[in-house]
Amino acid sequence: MDAMDPVAHAFSGSAAAAAGLRRVTPLATAALVLGAIAPDIDAVLMFGDEFHALAHRRGLTHGIAAVFALPLFIVPVLVAWDRYVRRRRDPAAAPALPVALYWLAAAAVALHLAFDWINNYGVRLLMPFDGRWSYGDALFVIDPWLWLLLGGVSFLAWSARTPALAAWSALWLLLSWPVFTSELVGASARALWVIGLAGIVMIRWRWRGQGGCSPVRQEMLARVGLGLAIAYILLAVAANAPARREIAAVLAGEGIAVSGRIMIAPVPGRPLAGFVVAETPAGYVLGDWHWRAQPRFEVRRNPLPARLDRPEVVAAAATPAARDFLTWSRFPYAEVETAGDDVFVRFRDARYAGGRGGIPGPTVRLAAGSLSVLDERASD
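RE: above sequence
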């Protein structure tokens, strides 16, 4: 996956509503959920050229201006629904407050940007004023523990009716699928997922046996869940700085000069572990980090050269697909292969050099003698 998943975004909005914000105005829950998913409208770019999409995703709809602009599209839809559907069904219902809906949607958009920042894919928070990427490197793009905390809060708040309970059951089965089928998720994480899901179901079952749960109690539990999610995120973010300092010290002790950034990419379901990329003058040093291991940081003995200054790579980098990929890439490097009269340059990002999956860059074919571009295509 290449971005914080829409499920977590929707859960963040619904959990905030369950914690009490739904009482601000009618349709507050809708404003929060729509605001929480609205920035990903730029996903339509993915139906076009994949590298063009990389260069432009998490841009205008994920910058500071979007916090104030996107609600301008959400609120009129909600006001129209309130006027022509909701209050026609119930003329005595209190009208939704447009100003309140606007600020709730804006808060949810801001929450979306914060969630996208916490992973190592990155976000351009200052768009449209500044196109630089920013990375939190705190959690994997899909985090099952946020699903459990935020989704559990939402489940308890909106599963009172039988159709809703059936829909939630189907959703939990769907969310369990990647947890149990992905090779990136370990056995201990799967066991914890089952235990957490069973705990949520038990709470729901107990409430049913007691004839339901009062709104005050629901909101209190929702606030606890939100508080735990926030504490989990803040702890993961705060742990990054001392970890990077320790990695830099270990590399210095081994005579490796770090000339640029150090990334600790989170591992799915394992917030204490990470894949390390450290930028050096020659390229990148790769390694593995785990808070509970001894030693906590282990260097992989195969450094990754960047090769970006080689003439054939410079020529290939001028092609449109390569330019788009390099706009997005954080730790770019190139693989160069000569086959007969052709030179193949494959662009990669070291963020994904430590495991399966990731986003491969384009392959550019050049004429060996002149280094003129013959063609470019997606990498194998």
